[in-house]
Amino acid sequence: MAEDAWHLRPLTVGDCDELGRVHMAVWREAYADLMPADYLAGLSDERCADSWREIAARAGGGSGSGAGDEARTLVVVDAAGNLAGFGSAGPSRDEDAPTPWELYAVNLASRARGTGVADRLLDELVGPRAATLWVVEGNARARAFYRRRGFADEGGRDVHPATGTPEVRMIRHA
């Protein structure tokens, strides 16, 4: 699918059921060899959709205008109107944040990977500003993407709370 066949738009409450299914399917696929199988099997599309509904409701039915320093989520939609992923960013959640802005997630279904839409998400959500992000240490594809986009291992380490999977903090300076 051509890059221009993908559309980015703010998350709406109406997206949440489909986004819950897409988000959990992406996790099950992307982390199949990186996180415990029982954890991935136990992920709930419905609980994920409920979490997205809370986020969309807090943003007034959408997920931020992109103005200022508010968190925002953009969904990726294909030419047929089906969701194929999302990206989220906002103020850093880290107490020791080396930058005020954080890329929270870029999660894409396999059919959207390699199309350029991840670059568009990063451009829209982060732009030229300095930012940090957390990535699963063993996720070589994601780490290579972020390195290509100017992020480097910052030295911060943590673990995914539910699984103990090692995570690495990366930083990009403006």
From TrEMBL:
<dbReference type="InterPro" id="IPR000182">
    <property type="entry name" value="GNAT_dom"/>
</dbReference>
<dbReference type="InterPro" id="IPR016181">
    <property type="entry name" value="Acyl_CoA_acyltransferase"/>
</dbReference>
<protein>
    <submittedName>
        <fullName>GNAT family N-acetyltransferase</fullName>
    </submittedName>
</protein>
<feature type="region of interest" description="Disordered">
    <location>
        <begin position="155"/>
        <end position="174"/>
    </location>
</feature>
<dbReference type="Pfam" id="PF00583">
    <property type="entry name" value="Acetyltransf_1"/>
</dbReference>
<feature type="domain" description="N-acetyltransferase">
    <location>
        <begin position="6"/>
        <end position="174"/>
    </location>
</feature>
